[in-house]
Design a protein that fits this description.
There is one protein chain. The protein is built from 16 helices and 16 strands. It is an alpha+beta fold and 439 residues long. Strands 1-5-6-11-10-9-7-8 form an 8-stranded mixed sheet. It has a 5-stranded mixed sheet with strand order 13-12-14-15-16, sandwiched between helices. A 3-stranded antiparallel sheet has the order 2-4-3. Helix 12 links the parallel strand 12 and strand 13. Helix 2 packs across helix 4. Bound molecules: zinc ion (2 copies). The site of one zinc ion (ZN) has 7 residues, from helix 7.
Length: 439
Amino acid sequence: MKIAAPKGTRDILPGEITAWQHVEQVFAEICGRFGYQEIRIPTFEQTGLFQRGVGNTTDIVQKEMYTFEDKGGRSMSLRPEGTAGVVRSFLENGMASWPSPVRLFYNITAFRYENVQKGRYREFHQFGCEAFGASGPAIDAELISLLQLYFQTLGLSRTSLHISSIGCPVCRESYLEVLKKFLQPHLDRLCTDCQERFVKNPMRIIDCKEAVCRGITRDAPAQLDHICSDCQRHFQGLCDNLDSLGLDYIIDRKIVRGLDYYTRTVFEFISENVGTQGTICGGGRYDGLVAAMGGPPTPGIGFALGVERLLMELAAQRVQLPQPAPPTVYLAVTGSMEQQAASLCFALRRAGVRAQTDLLDRSLKAQMKHAGKSGAQFVLVLGPDELAAGTTQLRSLLRENVTAVVRLADLPDLLCGLQDRPAAEQDKIIDDYASTSAI
Ligand SMILES: [Zn+2]
Ligand SMILES: [Zn+2]
């Protein structure tokens, strides 16, 4: 049997990890500015949590969840998303009594048994935010502004913000009647899933990906045109708040959420980049969710952002992301001075310098080649002569004629000063050292 990664999973290798770390760090930092604190939730939960929290009628729960029986005979599932676990934690830890609004963010892997395609994996990564306890539209706009600032900070352009309102349980009731009336004459042409949805959850028909259903629902009445006056006021408030924050948006009647506890505000960030068009991130209000999961009625709003999709978009828009940092210095060793070199190398690392030395008894020539391959910026040789004199020659591997004779004792400070500086500054530091060190 050949061992291979399971279909739909992937390794994130050292060459790409700095891009991941960058989008993670910027996300955490921006969340912090807005008062969102990180929460870490379990990878698996009782299956019942997702049946209630994600919805028993959704494809996610019906078809895509990794469900298993543990050795105690309990049904468990790998989390297919983050919100249900966060709401469970909110209730279990009594966060309803924390100062409101409770703002949380997460950075998780999630699991769905889906068809594998470009940018879509069975184990995937999601960033998300959830805010509990605020019902007015101000927090909706604030959350959207967080995402806007995040994309802007990453350098992602060519995205547009689409917003709508899907009303509340009161106005949805009457909208569903209008929608059913519209769909009734086309019922026998809908796909079999949608024929079932017509009875159980007609709103989801608008979301169907089958071409025939999309054709039928193109002119379907939109929820936004059938919301009650309270919901209209909330939606107007959201628009006003976005206007005053200076955020552009498109009112998009086509955004739907097929679950009862989703209410009012829905939003999506859509890429307008040729070739990668589509939703980058979606979110919305879920004022009914906490109560649906057995808690006190608590308004909430959140979003989830697929990290693979985000990185694909950044690459498509040619945004430069940080590369792995090469060693600042490579210590080449001659004359059996390995222990002394290892000791100097450790002193440099203690001082904060990225330093490498040879551990494989390579020849000096092979060490120089290895140093070049490692991307090291500087190289120095450490042998009996250098140790006796207490000095060595520090030499740039990237720029010719940038060299200086340096006291071994000065190396930690000097290399700390050189690390991660632009070339011109490095050259000046080395010049200054050469002219003042009097060696
Ligand atoms: Zn309403
Ligand atoms: Zn359909």
